[in-house]
Amino acid sequence: MRKAAILTAAAAALAGGAVIVERTLIAAPHYHGPRSDHFGGRRFHNDSPLWQSERSFLKWQMNRERGVWARVDAPPGPRPPARVDDLRVTFVNHATLLIQIDGLNILTDPIWSERCSPVSFAGPKRHRPPGIRFDDLPKIDIVLVSHNHYDHLDVPTLRALQSRFHPRIFTPLGNSALMARYGIHAEDLDWWQSKANITLVPAQHFCSRGLSDRNATLWGGFVITGRGGNVYFAGDTGWGGHFAEIARRFSPIRLACLPIGSYLPRWFMSPAHIDPAEAVKAHHVLHAKTSVAMHYGTFELGDDGEMEAVDELRRALVANGNPYFWILGFGEGRDVPSE
């Protein structure tokens, strides 16, 4: 019984925190394609050799020091505008942002589900409702899904979006096959590949939804290129040289959407998640005009408390000259300045 519990817990970490019972329908299909500098023929890999291992996960589980979380029943934010000619960002929750640029409405890693899990009765449960009601969304033209962890690739939300809006969905290599199982049509991209002014860019992370599919599909961030400027959405990422390379290829970056949460303990989380101080460092390396914080305060996935990442970010901003780095309220939208 103890061994089964440990294996279930290990699967939970590898799938972004969800409780898993391994079977074919849970594990993602394996990508098949030509070898590359980040695909060895069976598995994808980062430029860095750092990984979160099963052994390190078990060590973390045996020594956890959880931060403080509480359920917050906050009212939703106002209905976003139908279209925006320039550039506006609305923080919904977690890594879900509504980016409105050049008359297009783009959602990132959308999740409106109560849990980020393959089942409705277990797995990480949200501590606050989405900042924007699903019924208040404007027509969505494009959806960006950065990787297959349950808090980023949420099947019920994607099916609802497809049914209502029929958007184009872009995702890293291999994830379209997973979505196709559920009747969701998505288009795969490789690192540095572009479609419709959307470019998939590298990230330092990993993928899995079960025990047998670790790194069988790709992960990444996105750059949106438009008249309103370049927008970078990091997805989930640890620190790496990809920030400087993204800056080299896409500078100037008008808006960078950077994760700050699920960063503790550092000895375990650092290969996959930057911390708030590194988010400020990324802001500078990217030469971003404005950055916005995300990936905090919704699902308890690390040992950091509900708003601990925000407190750490504020301290890091003060220590680094108070750059233009927004901490938006849940459901808050702002027009992004051009200068």
Structure, described:
This protein has 339 residues and is of the alpha/beta class. Helix content is 22%, strand content 19%. The chain has 8 helices and 14 strands. It has helices spanning 2-14, 54-62, 155-165, 175-180, 242-250, 266-269, 276-285, 308-319, and strands at residues 87-93, 96-101, 104-108, 142-144, 168-172, 187-189, 194-195, 198-201, 221-226, 229-233, 253-259, 288-294, 325-326, 333-335. The strands form 2 sheets. It has a 7-stranded mixed sheet with strand order 6-5-4-3-2-1-14, with no helix packed on it. It has a 7-stranded mixed sheet with strand order 7-8-9-10-11-12-13, covered by helices on one side. A hairpin with a 2-residue loop joins strand 2 (96-101) and strand 3 (104-108). Helix 1 packs across helix 2 (54-62).
How confident is the prediction overall: mean pLDDT? 91
Q: Strand pairing plus helix content: what structural class?
A: alpha/beta
Tally of separate helices: 8
Query: Secondary-structure element sequence?
Result: HHEEEEHEHEEEEEHEHHEHEE
How far is the first residue's CA from the last residue's CA? 59 Å
Number of strands: 14
Could you say which overall geometry the principal axes of the C-alpha atoms support? globular
The unreliable regions are: 1-24
Rg (CA only) = 18 Å
- Proportion of strand residues: 15-25%
Helix content: 10-25%
Kindly report the spatial arrangement of strands forming the biggest sheet. Answer: 6-5-4-3-2-1-14
The profile of the biggest β sheet is: 7 strands, mixed
